[in-house]
Amino acid sequence: MRGRQQALRGHAAMLGFSAAVSGSFSLGAMVANDIAPVALTSVRFLLASAVLAVMVVLLPAAGRHGARGFTREDLRAPWRYAVLAVFYGGYFVLMFEALKTADPVQAGVIFTLTPLMTALIAVPLLGQKLLPRVAGALAIGAVGAAWVIFRGDWTAMVRFEIGFGEQLYFVGCALHAFYAPALKWLNRGESAFVTASLMTLAGFILFATYGWREIAATDWLALPGRVWLVLAYLVVFATALAGSAVQFAAQRLPASRVMAYTYGTPAWVILWELALGHGVPGAIVLPGIALIAVALLVLLRAD
């Protein structure tokens, strides 16, 4: 019974993750040309790390063994947080670079290919078994994603007619696919908030070192107000809360099922696009969206 309760908590965390991350596509596309991706990601990670550190210190059971605050054990082998930051931060840098040209809904659908890549990575890395039902659901989801990406044009699919932004974002999703298995593989008892805080701090150090010229060249005071609003959303919801949710769920669910919630992303993105008045794809993509929904339901039943 306790194991089932923990699994349900993991599912609830990933539902929140799916809703929070989806806003990144529509909002990110609005500011992708206003600020350099590395500069945005560096500041985003710095602020998110601070927010998460405050949560670790103040929230009950936010630290190791149900206590508050950081411990000396949390700081052992700090290279682990750098590795996680490369996967997580690299994904975001490529995402915002891609959104300069990629359609937000298209990007959201490409994101649904992440569970299949995650499952293929988790099998050798964690020794997790890929059940036939799970494999079938991942395959269904991949077909649905392909249908939406190529808008039902199988000729375009055979010729692999896909924009550069979408191709770049696919590489970013490959990095993200390593993130969930690596969380479980590298965890040494740290809580979700501790890992997320130290990972984002490591990400800030790495990306600020790499992109200091872009950061220095950015006229921060002249940035449009929408950039700061989007940055606030990204820090609180798409980084701090979403990162903690993945870490929380990764300790309670198989890696392929953790990332299964990315199948909900297209539906969330379409709702975001409608709310922002950007319009949505035509009815030709509906069969693909339906297949993605079937994949999510099968994966949830498989638990």
Automatic annotation (TrEMBL):
GO terms for cellular component: plasma membrane. It is a multi-pass membrane protein. The chain crosses the membrane at residues 12-32, 38-59, 79-99, 105-123, 130-150, 162-180, 192-212, 227-246, 258-276, 282-300. Residues 10-149, 165-300 form the EamA domain. It is found in: Cell membrane. Pfam families: EamA. InterPro entries: Diverse_Substrate_Transporter, EamA_dom, EmrE-like. Keywords: Cell membrane, Membrane, Transmembrane, Transmembrane helix. SUPFAM superfamilies: Multidrug resistance efflux transporter EmrE. PANTHER family: INNER MEMBRANE PROTEIN YTFF, OS03G0707200 PROTEIN-RELATED. This is EamA family transporter.
